[in-house]
Amino acid sequence: MTNPFVFKGASEMPKISISLGDMEWNKTGAWRAQRPFYEDKTPPCRAACPAGNDIVAFIQKITQGDFEKAWELIKEENPFPGICGRVCFHPCESKCNRGRFDEPIAIHALERFVSDFSSNLNKKVEKISAKRREKIAIIGSGPAGMSCAYHLAKLRYDVTVFESSSSTGGMLRTGIPSYRLPKDVLDREISNIEALGVTIRTGISFGEDLKLEGFKDHQAIFIATGAHRSRGLHIPGEKEKGVLSGLDLLRKINLGKKLKLGDKIAIIGGGNTAIDVARSVLRMGKKATLLYRRSKEEMPAFEEEIREAMEEGVKIRYLVNPIRIQQKDDRKRLECLRMELGEEDESGRRKPVPISNSNFFFEADNVIIAAGEEIEVAFLPKGMERREGIVLTQKDGSTGIKGIFAGGDLTSTQRTVAHAIGSGKKAALAMDCYLKGNDSEEAIRQILIGEGSSLSIFRYLHPGERPMNPHVVTFEELNMDYFEPSTRRRESKSPAKKRIKGFGEMTASFTESGALEEGERCFSCGTCNECENCYVFCPDASVVKKEEIFSHQVDYDFCKGCGICFSECPRGAISLKEEER
Amino acid sequence: MKKVITGNQAVAYGVILSRVDVISAYPITPQTTIVEELSELIASGRLSTRFLKVESEHSAMAALIGASTGGVRCFTATSSHGLAYMHEMLHWASGARLPIVLVNVNRAIGPPWNIWSDQSDSLSQRDTGWIQLYCENNQEVLDTILQAYRIAESVKLPVMVVLDAYVLSHTSEAVEIPTMEEVDQFIPPYLPEYPIDTQEPMSYSMIATPENFLEFRYKVQKAMEQVPEIAKKVEDEFKARFGRDYGAVERYGKEEAEILLMTSGTVTSTSRFVIQKLIQKGVSVAGLKIKRFRPFPIGEICNVIKGTKKLAIIDRNLSAGVGGIFAQELRAALYSREEKPQVFGFISGLGGRDITPELIEEAIQYTMDHPRPEEEILWLGLKK
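The joint structure predicted for all components is written out below.
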């Protein structure tokens, strides 16, 4: 019916006001002062991910049972879901809005699950055949170099990776113990990159075997040689026999080299390397004690790792600072000072201050120093600027030398796998812009995620697809009426007693039902998951569904702009704007 | 079967016998024992009525509006402040033409706080479009509820059945209780005129613009105008089945009398006693019980007041600024009539004070002694 009902008089009318016709003649949309529209916004997890993973999208695929598609979605941005799912410090979970409600989503475990699930399918990776003519060299096969190689290969470049070590992976292989990251997971994800057509040449040391002049036929170079040098303590006795650097020790263990260690090991440091060393020697049947000069609150190692280390029997002595390492018979004798916490330093942590005359001795068979890592500078080409222990680059990863880019631990103090992956990706697209003569800064600006700490190469490759407003959804913008408290699912972990028997992986991947359950917990912040709340609530039946399919469209002929859809959307995926007339 | 039961129990029997589908109510003295009785029967499984618990009287009526629109027979009971709280929804029920039956146990409205009987609560709702029936004894209470559903469902208007607090609600009398089978023959199942059909969805009680609103109200008035005739037919049938009738009004005492005393509710019973006594003394007086207040039974009244010179009314209510509400309604209705007796408007018994035989006699005496009232409001038993 297109016109309103007109009654001649009471005799024609029903007893009560009921709808005898319909109201389609009344285009109530004309009353609208504000216009609702579907607009995905940035979830805080993704904004926090240095690798730029589209986390909500892949979790949605998990909840739909499409694990393989979830894997593909991660791999749009990050070639290492199996690795990140295991060793990433998951800043996504710290920012997860669900953490304000009950417990954050176990994003890392879901990422690992889809990677393990998909690799079990043993699908062959298709080689990218048609290549561009430009050749690109990548120095270093760690997460930054391999991430860069992966994205460049997908951009159809001819990529060769040069690795000084005899095996690939950089710190992923030599620095991370296999109880946290099994070598087969690393091998599988690197070989997936190789299978795209990337050439990897190991045992070639940049600066020694291969000088810069040797790259004449390459149009661009990405240097990601990492930070492999252990920082010294600068105390007497640290160069003596029986004193090792943490990184050296881990490298030897990880590469299966012979090691001679006594029973009681003292580890100096409080970072992740110190913890990795302590837990590794424990697995070799030794006793491990960490000596850390600040207190537990200031420890840079991840809390969960500290907890697990202590479960396994690692002893930690806080507020202790070694000042001298002496030889006493076959053993090492550390002279230490007790410390107390003073004022905050520039890192915001309270600075340890020695207590005078508090000297004491600590005996051990070996001393391992894990007091931080530094970059190797000897081989770096002239003209690359450095400051405070890192190579300086532009926002796009370019260095002072034309055609040379750098990334990973070499250029950052945020030395995590995820940051390295993100920097490799950024360099890949900056090199693409450089080689095509485009403005890389503008290109990066277009594809920044959220507040801009990471970027999406998917958006670079597919402009306009899956648009996402950079606004990061806050907890307050969600509608908690639609969520029930639930418990975060944890990966099953073997007991500490069993774990220390060897270097086998200590956690197990989620089961399919476990992944589905955990995925269901996701609020899907800012991202429509077609819950249809808006469809149910719209008092004007103006949310359009076509043959049972949700269309993300509003019928503006009738939408009065009441905003109920906006306020009842559990996840902030609907926006309101003032109507322009 | 005869049982000695309170007025509130008589209500409960009436509800059970009427096969009510949905009850929703909120407790308030002196009504509470009505829904207590019913809810206990429902809880014990002896009554299959659906009982909706709510957080207020407003919600109780709102719930019944929903249920009644859905096409089922509904009941609620309340008093005083509870009825006042329903006010908005009372309009809605009549405007939506829903045949809901409500029992109001008359109780004064505070402040001062008071739980005893007067008619201010129900009479405050006189403009809400509800039919109002005032009862004199417990038998009448039960019988009126049975008739109320018949009337409501015929004219599609809600009915308020009213009884006095304590004097009826909590006082036991012998009441003849009809059987279920008998009542089933008297009250047919309720069939809604505009049933809800999910296959044929419609809006109910949606907007009517100025084009149509007046006509909807006109229809409500027309339905009210049908009530005298329909109520009489219903009561004639009731009498044929059960042997009892009450009428919209009832005249008693001398057939030809100069003075007529008009009352409603339980004061009528006291008046019957006083008038009988005065007649024996040779006073020319008769009584007039008003049962139906809405629609106001002016036709029925005029039929029985021929030759009356003076009409005394005892109002157990007060519309401050005017006086007694029955008196006010009566004066307004008589204005256009040829025969206009003098109306003496007495106010008495507010907040549950007894209206004693002495006070009633005083009112009659005053009416006899004065050619016309000296004041618009005549206070009976006021301690100055």
